[in-house]
Amino acid sequence: MRALLKLAARAPGGRRGKWFVLAAWLIVAVALGPLAGKLGDVEDSSANAFLPRGAESARVTTELEKFRTDTVMPAVVVYTGAGADGKAAADRTAFARFVPAGEEVSQPLPSEDGAALMTVVPLDSEDDVTDKIGELREIAAANAPPGVAVEVGGPAGSLTDSVAVFDGLDSTLLLASGLVVAVLLLITYRSPILWLFPLLAVGFAAVLTQVTTYLLAKHAGLPVDPQSAGVLMVLVFGVGTDYALLLIARYREELHRRSDRHEAMRSALGRSGPAILASAGTIAAGLACLAFADINSSRSLGLVGAVGVVCGFLAMVTVLPALLVIAGRWVFWPFVPHHGTPARRPRTVWSRIATAVARRPRWSWMMSGAVAGVLALSAAGIDMGLTQAQTFQDTPESVVAQEHISAHYPSGASDPAKIVTSAGKAAEVRAAAAAVEGVARIENSGDPTRDGRLVMLSVVLRDAPDSQAAKDTIDDLRAAVHRVQGADALVGGTTAQTLDTQRAADRDLTTVIPIVLLVVLGVLIWLLRALVAPLLLLATVVLSYVAALGASNLLFEHVLGFAGVDWSIPLLGFVFLVALGNDYNIFLMHRVKEETARLGHTHGVLEGLTSTGGVITAAGVVLAATFSIFAGLPLVTMAQMGVLVGVGVLLDTFLVRTVLVPALALDLGRWFWWPGGLFRRPADDREAAPGSDTQPSGRGRAHGPA
Predict the structure, then answer these.
(1) Which domain holds residue 430?
(2) Is the torsion defined by CA of 356, 360, 365, 366 positive or negative?
């Protein structure tokens, strides 16, 4: 592997190779760039894209495609207030032009309390439903009498409001990520020139990522949905910038030691390459473990994210080095690294932190562990699950419509459950369903499929579709209809989908988490050639995740005002944070291992922390800032994921990597490397005790930030 890395380092760091590398990337960008804009064409926004594989509700969704009414999606218009009769009658006439052949707008249905009217408008789902909902809402809002409120909701209205969340999301996140990264790079480098190079390389990575994702989705069945496509760009910008920061910091060091910038880049790639490769491998493998999840949207996020990480890695170790070598030393202006000068000052903030940790290592890791433990306590009180109304940070019209329906009708009237059963057993299934407590009514006898073999029954529940009572009714309904012999009855609909997703999320936690831990542990063992160190590093990352979950829950409850935590967040947060959080441990411990071999264990740990302190801190801030972009999105699920990942990365950066890991390494001494070669190495008499103030004569930074 090292030989392969050295061979790969020769091209972008070579006198001729750098031009070939740049030319290759330009050709790829020009030739394949147009495909990057087609990623939206392969996104799957159907109901099954967000459901568990093989779930009963997903099977119902598939079966419904066989029915005569398979293209119909209802919009529900609800009128409240005195004098709504005339408005509802006039709107019914206006709505008729939106209805497909063979369907009609329902008569306004009055509520039992006489305070509301409800009209169902069947729409053709093969047309642009969102445009039609927009026109329906314009008609409903026009000429409403004083005191009459009209809202358009139902499945079609909910779909429209959900799509609006993702409308233009890719471009918005791309611009926001680019702006955040540009600002942070300017602050980090304090150079008017250098910040452009990582941003340009990330741009190449973004193009390659979108093209690769599009081609894999189109020709290899890679699942892509709007959520994974949106997260993809943020992940590429965050991870790509992290690798750029690490590489540039090492390149700067080598420029102080070498007169030839080509040799400096080859050395920088050779020395930092294994850490970057291990980091990319850990993140990509960790995300790819989501392929074992049942929930399709989680699988999509993991697999698409893995593609983005690999593409970001390729760009950062090829085109970025080529650009830097072509430009020369002047890109660091005004802090130009000159050959023969110290790489950093003898005493820095990070050397002082290293000395403080070394003075009392056991106290340091115990106190930092206690802080993480206190934060983790808040994770025990998490309220899991969000209703439809709670999934938005604002209140879309479909949610208001549902609230009015729930106040005046059986709450499930706007979104009934669906039963698909054999035609010959339809009467028995109907009777069994009607006898279930919590069922308000069965609206029709069912429309058969074209071949007459299957029948669909529409079941109105008494409770709101996303309430726990409605989920309990779905369980009872399934139990009742499954007892009908030969019916092969399936129960689906929105409530059933929510229930199946919730249970699949619980199963995915117990399935995916052990796989991720084993994968990450394997990468750490390969990188460090030890067993104790990888186990401890993995334990610290898990502790950091639980602490981040607890701290985020406090923010959700007391700052952001969220009603609960979406079921998908614990698993997605774990995979992202274990993979990304371990990123900084890899950067730190790879350098510590290198310095330990040169200086001995104690000085190696201190030198590793001192030399990587600035760059890892900058990388953590960049990654946390890019993910914090999600916090401003209207969809609560994405906002929660952004907050959790951001908080977790900051904890890893400032607590775990800065204090906890170095303190554990110092306290354990050479046992930290058991049973590897560094453990068997004889103790160096020159090493100072862990509490000593002695520092190695590091290649100090004298010319600006790392």
Answers:
(1) 416-492
(2) negative
